[in-house]
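Question: Hello, beginner here. Any chance you could explain the protein record under this note? Any guidance would be welcome.
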Amino acid sequence: MFEYLIKRALLIPLTLLGIFTITFALLYIVPGDPVATIVGPKADAKTIAAIREQLNLDKPVIVQYFMYLGNVVRGNLGESFITKQNVLGAILEAFPLTLNLAVLSVFIMTILGIPIGILSAIRQRSLLDRFLMVAAIGGVSAPGFWVGLIALLVFVHALGWFPLNTIEVTSLGWPAYLSYLILPASVLGIRGIAIVARLTRSTLLEVVRQDYIRMARAKGVAERVVILKHALRNALIPVITYVGMDLAFLMGGAVVTETVFAWPGLGRLAVTALRAKDIPMVLGTVLFTSALIVIANLLTDLSYAAVDPRVKLGNNK
């Protein structure tokens, strides 16, 4: 186990370096100029040249790459070209909002998806099973922006059940804050509910065909105990994999949902920076997101052994 952790930890900096390099290259390939966003269309050539020099954009690309990389290694993500805000400070300010959205979304998808999957598995080939799986396919297939817009139209504008996010949500207390949070979190969790339900159903159906499950039933163990205690625990590994990775991706920024609901989180911050080609902010948000995903992937692998003692990590002779 310890050897496995060391190897995985050593791979993290190399992974982040590769992501940084690819992101930096893409930012210089895509069209757009951050200076044009700053000065506007009527600026003279002298002003543009002065700003480019101030932002080090007049230097060769390879020189800029190593300048950014050196700052990142020292823990300095730089300053936004557009807002002049410290990049790390902006990320840490937006991240709690995205974290709350992601955690509530994962909670919703877990408490609904797993029971739906269990119910569908124990009622295999029934009308209820077919209905639930068709609904799951719809949940996976529906585009996130479309679901978000429909939810806004129905639950905010038509029914008035939820408030429209037009104020600074960070200034609210928890009850009011949750009223703004629950609708985008639910929309964000719809696809997850469908995937968790399908994963739970398929893996549970595989597990209940194993010999030890037949043995438990032959001994007269109650069916509920067989499913929930013996079968479900071993069927949850694919579900844990999905939930762990999905939480990491959502913590990195639920871009579409945050944009549709005007939620001031990390995803919306990244989209705004990308539109303005705010290089330090884009690089900072991508690196921060990537680090979350890599660490979450490692923690997910480690959780396998806790759920199923048969799982061994690393080389075991």
